[in-house]
Design goal:
Number of domains: 3
Shape: globular
CATH superfamily of the largest domain: nmb1532 protein domain like
Largest sheet: 5 strands, antiparallel
Strand content: 5-15%
Pfam families: Hemerythrin, PAS_10
Structural class: alpha+beta
Protein name: DUF438 domain-containing protein
Strand order of the largest sheet: 4-3-7-6-5
CATH topology of the largest domain: Four Helix Bundle (Hemerythrin (Met), subunit A)
Oligomer: single chain
InterPro entries: 4_helix_cytokine-like_core (IPR009079), Hemerythrin-like (IPR012312), PAS (IPR000014), PAS-assoc_C (IPR000700), PAS-like_dom_sf (IPR035965)
Order of helices and strands: HHHHHHHHHHHEEHEEHEEEH
Amino acid sequence: MNSDKTKINLLAEYVEGLMNEYDGKELYLKYKDAIEKVTPQEAFEVFYLQLNKDKKPKVILKVLDKVINIFYKSLSSYPWKRPEKDSFLDVLIQENKALRAKLNDIGEIVKEQNFKGRKEDLLVKVSELKAFNDHYLKKENILFPYMEKRMEKFHGLTIMWSLHDEARACLNKMVSLLESEDCTESEFNSEIGKLFFAMGGLANKEELILFPAASEIFSEEEWRDMGKQSFEYSFPFIDSPQRPSEKIDDEEINELIKSMDGFIFKTETGILNLEQILMIFNALPVDLSFVDENNKVKFFTRPKDRIFPRSSAVIGRDVRNCHPHESVHVVEEIIEEFRNGRKEVASFWINMRGKMILIQYFALRNSKGEYKGVLEVSQDITEIKKLEGERRLLQWDNA
């Protein structure tokens, strides 16, 4: 796992040469020795160096596939220990295999004649691919935070997050196109190729670089922890693995409550113990997430129906790493306005899976007015928006 810094610098020069549109053949011959021995760990360092030189992910993405193709021989032959069956990493690999099967099925339909007659089937099959978003979310909210905490170079995972967003955008465009009555076979063929390249290409990059690199840095206990957290999400296109027993976690929480039996939260508005505080937080019909004054995620609630999945891996993570690179500037602007006291609230609302979601950010300040962080509150307001008139008598809603 030890990296050769000289080799990494040479590889970085090669990538920069491609970004500067130098002659590819000449570059390859110049850096051939380094290229033919590149490892997954070194590939991460090479791309991280580009980010440190203020290269934006979108700029790096322009040459990424060319670089991966050149590195392919070395990366594909790299020996790494395959994960145990149904472990967190193995499940991600299983999901990729199932994704490829789905893409192959779509490919078989594409080969058939009569596009208009196939359009409805294609819409169903392509729409099914949206379920694969949970694969990306597991990487973004579980695997990426673990890797970022382990080594600085893994902050380069923002590049892969950008690839996730590209795949999502391609998929949404493909679905919209198939839903349109004006969709032509020519347009479809163009966009389906992009979708296959985006989703299939991502799976290849995971198995060439991400998974081998990750396999070398975590203990079995850490992999088990990631596996437990993965049950916050679905397992697209595969049977769910056996859920690990939660007995130990429940015992830990009970022990914590028991150990703090004498802990009392007392204010002028009342008195609560720890168990009551946890019950109240989790009963609120909103998602709460707290980011402290150092921009670190410190806490989130687990209501019955969370809108946005959260995994404990994000605790301690820089909030800027919890968002795709293209939207980080919005996060930074909100924090800056709150920190300087110019703003107190920022509100957004989005349509998601047929629901209207209100997302609000509130500046947190202590009794001296000093900035102490941000509280994110997300709420499903679909039913609230439908309210009219009054209800003064008790009437139970169907749960």
